[in-house]
Design goal:
The complex is a heterodimer of chains A (217) and B (110). Chain A has a twelve-stranded antiparallel barrel with strand order 1-2-3-4-5-6-7-8-9-10-11-12. With 217 residues, chain A is mainly β. Chain A is built from one helix and twelve strands. Chain B has one domain: 2-Layer Sandwich (Alpha-Beta Plaits). Helix content of chain B is 41%, strand content 25%. Chain B has four helices and four strands, in the order αβαββαβα. In chain B, strands 2-3-1-4 form a four-stranded antiparallel sheet, sandwiched between helices. In chain B, helix 2 runs antiparallel to helix 3. The termini of chain B are far apart. Classes of the chains: A mainly beta (217), B alpha+beta (110). Chains A and B meet through strand 4 of A and helix 2 of B.
């Protein structure tokens, strides 16, 4: 029974869908490429293709810690992202995404390669002047159990137009479990996007750089 | 003579009923982010009847200029917008040239 339950959980996780802090699903027949450098504690790259507007498939590679750290893991994974619900309002949009997948992991705290599972969810709300998102992303193998929770709150100094440059100022709080970092990591970020290109960069309160580039096509 | 007038009026009526709109204007819900809205243009430009497109976040408007004598069914327009991640509130066919809509949007920018 326990084995059956584990199998159900595994299937549920791998069949559930995912995304980074922007939306993990661009549009039907659209591709999203994302690279993120997370303040010396996390690096991640993802590529997703959306056959339909409500789900995308693809994969990614994430590294926790760094080579000097006593604990560092590298995970390469396949993932399915799913849009649970979208609220298209008159002057706002809100989304609820979930994701799940599986991959392989290596690390300096264990020998060889392990099977890793990943799952997560994201809720976001956006008007032309206000942005808020909450995301949780979980990576697990026998040797580690990482969860990264990220909250972003942003304001736009002006309402961007369809063809113009969008500018956002964001405050971010991020918490890692699994020994990568203690306490909440706080960062201030600037987000710029125009057309299908999105760039985000800033500093943590410890002066570490965080940056992200995303392209939709 | 009466027959000729009747036929003439019928032809005029037929001509009037087959006059095609120049532009389709759609009011779209959820249109707040230009990055996310790129899919709208990609989807609509693929339709053979599309000549040009204007998107305005300010007016929550997506306008499609039609090629001469062509139209796009409402169901196809709704599907394109749904595939792009949005909800169409209203669809209106007008004789307004797309250039005029573009100028109107430029004038209304904050």
């Amino acid at each position: 029974m326990e084995r059956w339950s584990r199998s159900v959980v595994w299937i549920a996780l791998t069949a559930a869908p995912a995304l980074a802090l922007a939306k993990p699903i661009a549009f039907a027949n659209g591709t999203t490429v994302m690279v993120e450098y997370g303040a010396d504690t996390m690096k991640e790259a993802q590529v997703f293709y959306a056959p339909q507007f409500n789900f995308s498939v693809g994969g990614g590679h994430v590294e926790f810690g760094n080579e000097k750290s006593p604990k560092a893991e590298r995970i390469t994974y396949a993932r399915l992202n799913y849009l649970l619900h979208r609220w298209n309002l008159e002057t706002a949009q809100a989304n609820l995404f979930t994701w799940g997948g599986a991959g392989t992991a290596t690390g300096n705290g264990f020998r060889g390669t392990q099977i890793a599972a990943n799952a997560g969810a994201q809720a976001d709300y956006e008007t032309r002047r206000v942005y808020a998102s909450l995301k949780t992303d979980w990576q697990r193998a026998d040797a580690f159990d990482h969860r990264v929770d990220t909250l972003q709150l942003g304001i736009a100094p002006y309402k961007h137009s369809y063809n113009g440059l969008a500018t956002w100022f964001l405050l971010q709080g991020r918490e890692y479990t699994g020994g990568v970092r203690r306490g909440i990591e706080r960062a201030a970020l600037v987000r710029l996007f125009k057309g299908g290109t999105w760039v985000e960069a800033g500093l943590t309160t410890e002066g570490r750089i965080q940056a992200m580039v995303m392209i939709n096509f | 003579m009466k027959t000729l007038i009747t036929v003439g009026m019928a032809l005029l009526s037929l001509a009037a009923s087959t006059t095609y709109a120049k532009t389709i204007e759609m009011n779209v819900k959820g249109l707040v982010c230009a990055f996310c809205a790129q899919g709208i243009e990609k989807k609509l430009r693929k339709l053979p009847a599309t000549a040009d497109i204007v998107v305005s976040l300010e007016d929550r408007l997506v306008a499609v200029a039609l090629k001469d004598g062509q139209d796009i069914p409402d169901a196809e327009l709704r599907k394109a917008l749904t595939d792009a991640g949005y909800t169409v509130a209203t669809i209106q066919r007008t004789e307004t040239p797309i250039a005029e809509i573009r100028s109107r949007i430029k004038r209304s920018k904050p």
